[in-house]
């Protein structure tokens, strides 16, 4: 069972002094019995009604007591020296409150892939870098508790919640790259089906819009950079719908791209071409542009009252 292997990878850490908080997000399988069968006093198990990954992580943040915090999804594994190496680097570099590592995708057929090249792994103030691309996952990082005070995952998001979390928290301090260790992410058929989907793309562009226009992103990102990046993403989604013959979605998305970069002739050309698609062959004739994201949502106060251990 994935969750048992994930837990065991933490319990085998060379660093021994930690608490392992396991949040059961309303599972209907034997997760509870599996966790409770592991005899280790460092494990703290909490069951809650299903609310999604962000809700589960937020509850973990509420229950934490340690100086440092690391997340681990059930399909991820920690190498034996992971926590020791990451915390050692943070202790040696006190100006940094977050350390992140590489991560390696392991596929069902045994193939491995280091998703991002070394050019993406840098240290410092990374908000501008993260606005363009976030080459990390929540499991591949360790946080000092001070940077997490009052900070939570956005429970409005069903996809790209990691990216949103990284982007927003990057404004709170400098971030340290630790290339010596790598989290193992086991890519399952379910996670494969979610990668690169339209849902994740539209979530990401809405995250960028909210960050720039509502969350003071303009203090970190120039107007030109923001409009260029957001326009590119809308055009990318518009072209995909154009290729699928979805006239209405393509038109609306090209219009959004044009609104950000009105001088870009490629965007106008794409919009004109979309108008000539057959309405009769549109597979999504009722498609609507998703509404802007509201302010980040967390239900941690109510969650704490509705959990069992």
Can you put this structure into words, describing what you see?
- The protein is an alpha/beta fold and 309 residues long.
- It has 2 domains: 2-195, Spore Coat Polysaccharide Biosynthesis Protein SpsA, Chain A (Alpha-Beta Complex), CATH 3.90.550; 198-275, Serine Threonine Protein Phosphatase 5, Tetratricopeptide repeat, CATH 1.25.40.
- 42% of the residues lie in helices and 15% in strands.
- It has 13 helices and 8 strands.
- It has helices spanning 2-11, 31-36, 53-63, 82-92, 127-132, 145-148, 161-169, 189-194, 198-213, 223-243, 247-260, 265-275, 300-304; strands at residues 20-25, 43-48, 68-70, 76-77, 98-106, 112-114, 141-144, 175-186.
- Strands 3, 4, 5, 6, 7 and 8 form a 6-stranded mixed beta sheet that branches.
- Helix 2 links the parallel strand 1 (20-25) and strand 2 (43-48).
- Helix 7 (161-169) packs parallel to helix 9, helix 9 (198-213) packs antiparallel against helix 10 and helix 11 runs antiparallel to helix 12.
- It starts with a helix and ends in a 5-residue tail after the last helix.
- 34% of the residues are buried.
- The mean pLDDT is 92.
